[in-house]
Design brief:
Shape: flat
Order of helices and strands: EHEHHEHEHH
Helix content: 25-40%
Strand order of the largest sheet: 1-2
Number of helices: 6
Number of domains: 2
Largest sheet: 2 strands, antiparallel
Length: 124
Amino acid sequence: MLGWFPGDKVGFGGRQARTLITDWAALGRTGRFHAGGLDVDHRLQAAERAVLAIHVTGDQLAPETSTAHLLSKMPRAAVTQHRIAPPPFPGKLDPHFRWLRTPEPVADRVASFFGEVPPARSAA
């Protein structure tokens, strides 16, 4: 009706585009990814890449069971998993977003996964 999801008004998900909400709804109904009409599940099934999965303890928007379900769709992938405790932060901010207040533990895991990237050289 609105062309977008008023999550900021209803207290979930923030303001999101109709296409994202349509994808979320389909995923919730079927457990299958068909983002933008693509059969993402088929592509995940065939993926033979290294995958980094980071789970933030207590994340209600991406619980550990959801992460496990997603990873089960990639049986050929070489998966590295990490669990990170969310940083303490006053208020009701969900760990899904709270880790952004102190992103170093996540950034360190990502940097380690991809290997340290040397700083760019300045042109002399």
